[in-house]
Amino acid sequence: MTEQPQPFRDPQLPLARRIDDLLQRLTLDERIAMLHQFAPAVDRLGIGAFRTGQEALHGVAWLGPATVFPQAVGLGATWNDDLVRRVGEAVGNEVRAKRAKDDRVGLNVWAPTVNLLRHPLWGRGEEGYAEDAALTSAIAVAYTRGLRGDHPHYWRTAPVLKHWLAHNNETDRDTSSSSVRPRVLHEYDLRAFRDAVRAGAVAGVMPAYNLVNGRPNHVSPLLSQQLRRWTEQSLVVCSDAGAPSNLVDSEHYFDTHEEATAAALKAGVDSFTDHGQDSTVMTGRIRRALEQGLLDETDIDTAVRRLLELRYSLGEFDPGLDPYADTTACDTAEHRALAQEAAEQAVVLLKNDGLLPLDPGAPGTIAVVGLLADACKLDWYSGTLIHRSTPLDGVRTRFGADRVTFAEGADLIRLKCAAGWLQIPDADAGTGTGQGAEGALDPALLAGRTDLPPLTCGDSPSELALVDWGNGVLTLRDPDGRHLSVAEDGYVRASADEPGGWIVQETFRWEKVEGHAGGHRLVHIGTGGYVSVAADGVKVAGVDEEDSGHAGVADAGPAATVFEIEVVERGEDAVARAAAAADTVIVVVGNDPHINGRETEDRTTLDLPAHQERLWRAAHAANPRTVLAVTSAYPYALTDAAATLPALLWTAHGGQAAGTALARILSGDVSPAGRLPQTWYTSETELPGLLDYDIIGSRQTYLYYEGTPLYPFGHGLSYSAFTYTGLTAERDGDRLRVSVTVTNSGVVAADEVAQIYVRALAPSVVRPLRQLVGHRRLHLAPGAGQRIEFAVPVTELGHWDVAHGRWTVEPGAYEVRAGASATDIRLTTVVTVDGEPSGPRPVLHHGLEAADYDEQLGTEIVDRTKTDGDAVTATAPGNELLFRSCDFAAGTRTVEVSAAGEGSVEITVDGRTTTVHVPATDGPYDFRGHGTPLTASGVRDVQVTLRGTVRLARITFTGAAE
């Protein structure tokens, strides 16, 4: 007789019943243990260990060799949903392939990042797709569908979206609060998450480190009020690393970790990522929270149920039925071809005065120069390269190595001190091989090597290549290309292939010594210590194994060596020589993703580093046929270059095939069709503050920006030309049917990215100047045309109506635009839409929520309570809240404010100001009502000014007849 499986293992039973059965078999301790990122096995039930979290932003990260695709912002630049879906599928297959070899590999992938690229100085801009919510949503839906797979029950991997919510700054990221008014919340930040969740390929979200409106994201009521109402599917919320502890340790939002952990769990956090693999700290907090009555077992079971549903979807309990269990596809020919295709589609041609494409068959030489000319840069969320193609590699392969010359443009220097010249010993003097498990040099291992001899000082100088990455941050390399790096023992060695690691140990800064002509100290940025020459070698003064990796561990003191810098050759001189001797010059500039802008570090400027600015200027002065190829994770303010040079291109770091892709674009093998996923400005002076999240009030992003950008959102040129004809737009039920014909009027086959924008012609409130509602990348042969149709939900024309607390589509005329960028509009038409007029605010019936203002100045939104609600407080004396079109009907007799703190609230109607005094309350959450007479009638604007430490939650008016 065949033994029946336990109900929780019976695939014939409904999933809910299986989970119910398993839950009742688990002890309380076993259920609590499942709430940590590293959930242990339950051996008595035959259940294995499980971990949430595997990084897979643009390829499998942190698990060694993998196919490396372009950075996320590069995938966004393709504007190609189908391509990105195929990339997601490839990445998901490689996760599965690694899982097949190592069951410690997690199938819950923490990707993609859908935070909107609101501000170009954000350090993690490389991780997002676009500044636009619609484009971000479309790319995220595509990537998650690829990661998830097409099986109706079992998932290839389980994607988690990062980072909920309104997270665009690394500066003080765990303590800063994003002030997000309701309109921005509903029209912008939530939108990026909502569409991907509703598409059904998302397993959950990860809250961000920051606070929103004064409340940490890890206890946000929006997790239940918004996220989990968008779908009937179970969603898992995984905390960011260390964030549960931040609720007490850095944010001081709760007094005890038990309170914080209970609040996060009740708010909807299911999996706690804290204290690495040591789960005892978090499980202890949960247990004590239960004992203190802050939680009950129902709270535990709710979270465990979600986690179990995730595990079931990944086939854990049905290994014989899991269609993805035997996946072995890693570094396949198809994946390599896809990586190249993605890199090619991500290249954006910013400017071309006819210099491009270059004819591979024409005579002449090409000089490939610049600090990134022979580089294939990785970022923090990359896998280890199996294949590597730099721009120099790509151009040599496509145009012929004998026709290509190279000059990096690093400054060549020697350093001298009282003990002699800085010397780099022969690497063979070390004892280690420095090789990874598969025989390839692993930069992460090389950077920490202690087996190589440290630098010394003596009679024979070593030549160093110096690169200044901007903001005074520099790297130094030996003649063999090895970067100077500081290991745990504090000694300086030439040991790293590239800068890298969570704390970069390969970056330095000069500090000029007063009173010493030409004298400089060398500061190691990773530790904050000074480079010092001692008898046993060069090390960072005051750094030992316990101190390493922590900034500020050393003072200059007598141990800080003073160096004199001897310049052997300026980089621009080498570049000028190479440029003068060539027929065409390609200058490759950009950033290193581990320096001056990355996780934990925002940028301070849009300017190209001065070192690289000198290189392109020297190249162009020597040879006017100069192409600037920007390889970067971020936009730059290239105003002078755009005005001076005949051709400019941009691509994000393109992964393993970056060089091949660039060469195929330069040669005309592929016509460029990448499009900018964010606005490129002429200067950071055009930007609001990094922490200003009010895109409406400060007119941010292409949606509201009123200036003239260097290059607009959606911009990108082609080697062909395209015409747009026959634009139509008509209402069809709950959708607009928009159609347009795109024709390739040029002489080469090429891709075009058709873009559809809308704008309200007579809005009652501030609305976007243009808003993307559709895009399509299509390939057309010369002379070929294609009619394309977009089904635009009418709700896309709407906005969040703060006067009535709802989404609304105003009746009236809307302009529909078709074109090649946000500003390159080829055709327009107008469609009239029926809708519901917003009407004035019914303030006698509903009052005024303080955060529902139309305009503000000098205020921020804060938390009304620790669990729910908003209030507003002043950040500057001349603050103002403006509420338009408030309907007082026949009249009012009193006004009452709900406020905490101390001070007053001034309410101005028709030029008459009424002051409501707020006596000191018992803390910031002790909101009390305070009233005074006020007379107003009809429809009027209301202006509110806050004095003192007042936190205003609500204003209520009493009618004259009441």
Automatic annotation (TrEMBL):
Iron-sulfur among keywords: no
GO MF annotations, alphabetized: hydrolase activity
One Pfam family linked to the record: Glyco_hydro_3_C
Coiled-coil regions, chain positions: none
Residue ranges of every copy of the Fibronectin type III-like domain listed in the record: 752-822
Keywords: Hydrolase, Signal
Occurrences of domain Cellulose binding type IV (ranges): 841-959
Matching InterPro entries: Actin-crosslinking (IPR008999), BXL (IPR044993), CBM6 (IPR005084), Cellulose-bd_IV (IPR006584), Fn3-like (IPR026891), Galactose-bd-like_sf (IPR008979), GH (IPR017853), Glyco_hydro_3_C (IPR002772)
Protein name: Glycoside hydrolase family 3 C-terminal domain-containing protein
Upper lineage: Bacteria, Bacillati, Actinomycetota, Actinomycetes, Kitasatosporales
